[in-house]
Amino acid sequence: MEQLLVFLPLLVILGVFMFFASRRQRRAMQATIDLHESLQVGDRVHTTSGLQGTVTDITDDTVDLEIAPGVITTWMKLAIRDRIEAEAPELDHTDAVELTADPERAPKD
Q1: Angle at 42 between CA 37 and CA 45, to 5 degrees
Q2: What are the transmembrane regions (predicted)?
Q3: Residue 16's domain spans which residues?
Q4: Within-domain flag for 53
Q5: SS3 letters across the chain
Q6: Per-residue pLDDT tens over the stretch 29-75
Q7: pTM of the model as a whole
């Protein structure tokens, strides 16, 4: 009976760890499914092998990617890792100087 009481906390900790690990895995799988269902022609994507391309056609199980002008390859949807989001435009040096020269934005002593 004493041996059971020694192992009971370890079993509880193991059970909690397994619960949270499976929950995290389920969320990741759902995010992947949502990504594959939301793909549209024209999206820029990364594949699991690191290739970047633009989606040109989508079927139930495959995606055609244009990896260079005029070069189209067919991939399984499962190979799409993530969508490449458009980058925010960077400020050039003159815009940065104008922002810092604004007296209302200047740091106060």
Answers
A1: 65
A2: 6-22
A3: 1-37
A4: yes
A5: CHHHHHHHHHHHHHHHHHHHHHHHHHHHHHHHHHHHHHCCCCCEEEECCCCEEEEEEECCCEEEEEEECCEEEEEEHHHEEEECCCCCCCCCHHHHHHHHHCCCCCCCC
A6: 899 889 999 999 999 999 999 999 999 999 989 999 999 999 999 99
A7: 0.59
CA atoms within 13 A on the CB side of 69: 0
Whether 53 and 67 have beta carbons less than 8 Å apart is answered as yes
Confidence of residue 7 (pLDDT cuts 50, 70, 90): confident
Q: Looking at the 3D structure of the chain, how many domains does it have?
A: 2
Is 54 part of any domain? yes
Task: Examine the domain organization and report whether 44 and 33 are in the same domain.
Answer: no
Inside any domain, residue 19? yes
Residue 13 falls within a domain, yes or no?
yes
